[in-house]
Amino acid sequence: MVELRHSSSVGARASSSPMKRDEDASPLIHVTTHDDDHRHHFSRDRDRSFWSFLSDDLRVFSLLNSKISLFLIAVFAIVGLISAFSIFNRLNAPYLCKKDGIVLHCPHVNEAPSLWENPYSATTSWKPCAERRDNGISDLPPENETNGYIFIHAEGGLNQQRIAICNAVAVAKIMNATLILPVLKQDQIWKDQTKFEDIFDVDHFIDYLKYDVRIVRDIPEWFTDKSELFTSIRRTVKNIPKYAPAQFYIDNVLPRIKEKKIMALKPFVDRLGYDNVPPEINRLRCRVNYHALKFLPEIEEMSDLLVSRMRNRTGVSNPYMALHLRFEKGMVGLSFCDFVGTRDEKARMGEYRKKEWPRRYKNGSHLWQLALQKRKEGRCPLEPGEVAVILRAMGYPKETQIYVASGQVYGGQNRMAPLKNMFPSLVTKEELATKEELDGFRKHVTSLAALDFLVCLKSDVFVMTHGGNFAKLIIGARRYMGHLHKSIKPDKGLMSKSFGDPYMGWATFVEDVVVTHQTRTGLPEETFPNYDLWENPLTPCMCRA
């Protein structure tokens, strides 16, 4: 019996002719014997085992492939979820708080337990220590031994005038001179004719400082040509540098006062330094600011009435926030920052800046780069809408009672709308008081400014939006008087970076705002060279409890 069997390796090369295969005596032709039969069965068993093994491998491989596929599907699903979450966050960026026209709707933030109190005030042990010494003994020389009289014009708005008065008392002390009651000079912006006695309690001012400096109400009678004191260059010291040290007055001003007996010092804005004068002189400046300068009783009483109305606007006792909003046309123009607005609005602002500040404006080509740099450095006023978003991120709810101290906001109601809609319980003194109640204060712009100052000073939370004497004097006073109430100074540099990041989600923005401002709440801070005494009176006006 003959069986034909092809090897997989040789069959491909075998001839298709049987005759040819026979003639070639192909080794593929065998005669079946017993041994061949045994080998044949062994070969079949071996082949069957091989294919069985191969089949098992294929099943394992298929199972492994299924597991890998499931793993990859899971990975892709997770990546997809992360991407969706990222897109959701981008759509909820802080400046995209669900815009509805000019209205902003930001996500809800849980109200923090320390929203209305300064959480770190108990961790400090500072107390005010610039008040007058009880049973103090005057170290002033007799009146006839005074080195002379000094006279100053306190320029600017109410708070710039306040600083000038404090500095005038300090300079009089440095030179052992008599201070003539300062004149509150009419400012070209404020256009106010207020006198010292129209705002401050003169009797208290003179009496409280009687152990420190001799102060008289008017120019001495023996000096007959009073107009000369206002106009004559011979009676004026004009070369005083900004932030001058105490020694400058002793070396350069005192000899002229001794010679002429009466001298006017002008200009007098920021003409005395901070860290280049003796500590007792700085302490005296704090004594003037926080203790000697008191507003008239009628101003104090009206401010108390406004505060009472703010604390009872909901029918029950409620805390309130005071917001100093610096976004008047003059402030926006002077800042040289760029703000959201129409092309026509920006063109009008450009013309306004060119007219008011021609030296800074030049040809206007450099202003865009300047605006970007100032915003990056946090030197631009916060817009009302930006303030609204920051306050919401801090956790203040829609029902927050807010007192706004501000001039006429640039852009009017449209600019105020985002803030007003997010915090509808927002009022000014004109809305809290009747026209008749305020009429007595309207004749002096500084009287109205004094009302704003006191209502902000007594608030549970004070928020400033830009620098300036008003804000730094309030923050300094709240620090000095015990720093129990929160005074928030936004980090405008960080906020500018966050507002400009299109990929920052709302949750990340909220975390940044809360963490950044945890310690920016008006606590006393260690002083540094050229520090501002009015904003941070820690040394030498405060001491350890």
UniProtKB/TrEMBL annotation:
Q: Which InterPro entries does the entry mention?
A: FucosylTrfase_pln, GDP-Fuc_O-FucTrfase, GT106_glycosyltransferase
Membrane-topology descriptor:
Single-pass membrane protein
Q: Which Pfam families does the record associate with it? A: O-FucT
A GO CC term assigned to this protein in UniProt: membrane
**Keywords from the named record:** Carbohydrate metabolism, Fucose metabolism, Glycoprotein, Glycosyltransferase, Membrane, Transferase, Transmembrane, Transmembrane helix
Compartments it resides in:
Membrane
Domain of life of the organism in this record? Eukaryota
Q: Which GO terms describe its molecular function?
A: glycosyltransferase activity
Q: Where is this region: Disordered?
A: 1-26
Q: Where are the transmembrane segments?
A: 68-88
Specify the pathway. Glycan metabolism
Query: Major location, coarse class?
Result: membrane
Comp. bias (Low complexity): 7-17
GO biological process entries: fucose metabolic process
Family, according to the entry, reads as follows: Belongs to the glycosyltransferase GT106 family.
- The name this protein carries in UniProt is O-fucosyltransferase family protein
Give the species: Populus tomentosa (Chinese white poplar)
What taxonomic ancestry is recorded? Eukaryota, Viridiplantae, Streptophyta, Embryophyta, Tracheophyta
